[in-house]
Amino acid sequence: MDSPSSSSAATMGVPSEGAVGNVNGNEVGTTASFAGYMETRGVREARVLASELCRHMYTLGWFSGTGGSITIKVHDDSIPKPRQLVVISPSGVQKERMVPEDMYVLSSDGFILSTPPLKPYPHKPPKCTDCTPLFMKVANKFFPHNFLQITHMEMIKGIKGHGYHDELVVPIIENTAHEAELVESLTEAITAYPKTTAVLVRNHGVYVWGDSWISAKTQVSVLRKFL
């Protein structure tokens, strides 16, 4: 993904080990005005990268079953900034078998522009992850909470903007029955702790993001050591 014409920001939803007409509140948009953009190299690479990361994290044991999800915001010089697209992994698909065609493509305002093709039995119909509203909040920089405080740990250096002598604060919010219901508390947590790049959801898992997929992946690895 490291090329002059395209780069990406990434969001990852990592489940805890215990734990389109209208899809998850997002209306399917008209693809005509976005058709050219969806075929750009940046979008193609984001699809490939998202599927590769899903498979890799499954292999590492960070994603289990069909849990976990990845979102990549595509920064492409051929796409005006207000119209830059978002690639999101689907729900209910075996992570170790993910392919680029399984990815959803959304507009910057949350309209689903491209859905995965139907697959024969025993595969279920494609479904965009229930985490979509949360990912879109983070992707569009929406930056009484409990929090996790970590100090004097060597690996803190792996978290963006932190060094050994810094205090790492990860806000904790309460879980809900449906991921979409977390939007308000997630937004409040990010607003209260603007330096954070992760939010821990009690009895659910952790949402982590970065200005590139490498940054997000590194931070997931570090946070798993702490959590």
From TrEMBL:
Domain (Class II aldolase/adducin N-terminal): residue spans on this chain: 48-227
Region feature Disordered, mapped onto this chain: 1-25
Composition bias, Polar residues: 1-10
Signal sequence coordinates: none
InterPro entries (UniProt xref): Aldolase_II/adducin_N, Aldolase_II/adducin_N_sf
Cross-referenced PANTHER family: METHYLTHIORIBULOSE-1-PHOSPHATE DEHYDRATASE (PTHR10640:SF7)
Entry protein name: Putative bifunctional methylthioribulose-1-phosphate dehydratase/enolase-phosphatase E1 2
